[in-house]
Write a structure and sequence with these properties.
This protein is α+β, with helices and mostly antiparallel strands. 42% of the residues lie in helices and 11% in strands. It has five helices and two strands. The N and C termini lie far apart (36 Å).
């Protein structure tokens, strides 16, 4: 969503990405960078985690860390490197969010065309 004349593309835009093990983009979400590093995926606050732990199974989702799953983060980082090979994505020339999202989408499509599913 664009807000008037405010720029949501540009140098401070964050791209949140899901990638497969072959380093191909699956889904992406952009957010304005001036709102913090990761406003869409804020970590659980310590007091909330403590309260959930006290409640046990009644406390909702348990805070956890999966070391094997964390290792797969490398796939996302390498996917970002592939996206950054496209100048429009790397340099963030676009001033509007929708246009920048389009540049990321076109770069993603090109990555998929180079490495299709077999």
């Amino acid at each position: 969503m664009e807000h008037g004349n405010r720029s949501r593309g540009g140098l401070s835009t964050n791209v949140h990405l899901v990638a497969d093990r072959r380093r191909r983009p699956i889904a992406r979400l952009t957010s304005p960078g001036q709102h913090g590093d990761s406003p869409r995926f804020i970590p659980v606050k310590a007091d909330q985690a403590d309260n959930r732990r006290k409640k046990g199974s009644r406390g909702g989702r348990p805070p956890s860390f999966d070391a094997e799953r964390y290792k797969e983060r490398n796939s996302v980082e390498r996917c970002f490197n592939k996206l950054r090979q496209h100048r429009g994505v790397a340099m963030r020339y676009d001033k509007r969010d929708r246009i920048y999202q389009g540049a990321v989408d076109v770069a993603s499509i090109r990555i998929w065309l180079r490495d299709p599913v077999m």
